[in-house]
Structure prediction request, 539 residues.
Amino acid sequence: MRNLLLALCMLAPFSYAEVVVITNASGPDAMDANEVRDLFIGRSKTLPNGQPADPIDLETGQALREEFHSKVTGRSQAQYNAFWSKQVFTGKGQPPRTLNSAAAVKASVASTPGAVGYIDSSDVDDSVKVILTP
Amino acid sequence: MIPHSNKALALAVSALLCTSYATAQDNSADQRIEQLEQQLQTLQNQVNAPEESRLRFNGFLSIAYGMASNDGGYAGYTEEGTFNEESLFGLQGAFTLTDDTEVTMQLVGRGSEDWDPTIEWAYISHQFTPELKMRAGKMRLPLYMYSDSLEVGYAQPWIRPPEEVYGNVPITSYTGVDALYDVNFDMSTLTFQAFMGESEETISNLGQTLRLEVNDLFGGSATWTDFIWTVRGNYATAEITTGGDDLQTDFYGLGASYNNGSLQVISEFTRLEIEGSTPDTDSGYLTFAYTFGSLAPYFTYSMQESTDDDERPYSREFIYQAITTPGNPLYGNIAAVALSDVQSSERTAYSLGLRWDLASNVAVKFDVTRATDFGDTGGGLPGNIGPVISYDDIDVYTIKIDSAF
Prediction:
């Protein structure tokens, strides 16, 4: 029994680790995947509660970024980059800003009203609000 | 009893003291932490605040090397391999004047033009409402789905937009105004674009360099997209001239694309109608691309056909004979070639290619294109404008690095 519990404890962080979308404490309580996608493709610029949106992406090449985009924007890294280069060079806008670690994303979301980012569910704490588990 | 109670009192007092001391310490520590937290937050806000810098630069670079199986000149390629034909760089600067007003300029330098930079975009835009944006200046002529990002290879699945469709209109930009109006639905957006303006460019036609003027240019498009499906229809009209008569010109385009993240299907059909002997052309293509991780192979079938061959009744042999025979009324009149079937075309092309995203914002592409089925025509190849048709088909091999930054 004790061994089983121990094994479960060891397993838990892995089996439950998945990407979650977070906002600042002042942000909305929930958003659906399409609303979040629209922020990351520049189609919408406000959150459901009216706050100006500040979406934050991880830098390219991180596993969590790939997981988020495959679940939310439905684009591979290459296609997502290509999409944004099309937008940029046709004057339709700039991609979301990027940070180099999930910890930086969490800290920035925690301190920036309107910020929307994504982190691993195991890193969630009271400083941010989970609005979507895609 | 007393000593005991004394002891108890002492204990109680000391306990009280300890508690209050601890509380005092806690209070000051809490305040200190709160202060630090505030300072940290201020710092974080400064560090993390979205870059609201007023001037932004972006660029793109493509380096291509290609060669063809003969000197037909498809997409500019001949038997002699070259880096210059499709290599280019672009530099874009966008200057934010107010929250709603922006000035954008894009310089493009092409290997085929000695890398001399020319201004492709130079416009001021103003967002009047969240739905309505207007722009004035020099902009891309929006005839095709990929017109806006025509030279940004990194944004495209192919090594080049299908030549049969994109190669028919030598003008790629205009000077004027446009309006973009978005209608937002729950899951999708319908964008209307209307534009008017004019254009003047030096073009090459039938081996001659000409000044092409496009006046009274009006057009519009409607594009619906839900990010997976895109459907677009557009129309444009203009009076064009190369010095002689003004020729009424109409352009119709219909396009659709699908992209579910793995499978991409893109198709466009266009119809170009020009008054007189200048060819009217129907064209279209269908592309399939599939993404496997960093690899995205694609296949494109494309075609073009001139639809007014009866307006060019003379055979090329007859016209060349006439313009090279002293005493003939057409002797020396090179322009008369335009009245012959030299300008008639029929062509089908098959492209097989691969896009390999080898790093973030860098893609390497490989492509083999075979253009064939010219019928009785020269297939619209620059190498086939002589008195006899020299090439019945052509294969083009290209490798290209596309980058955006």
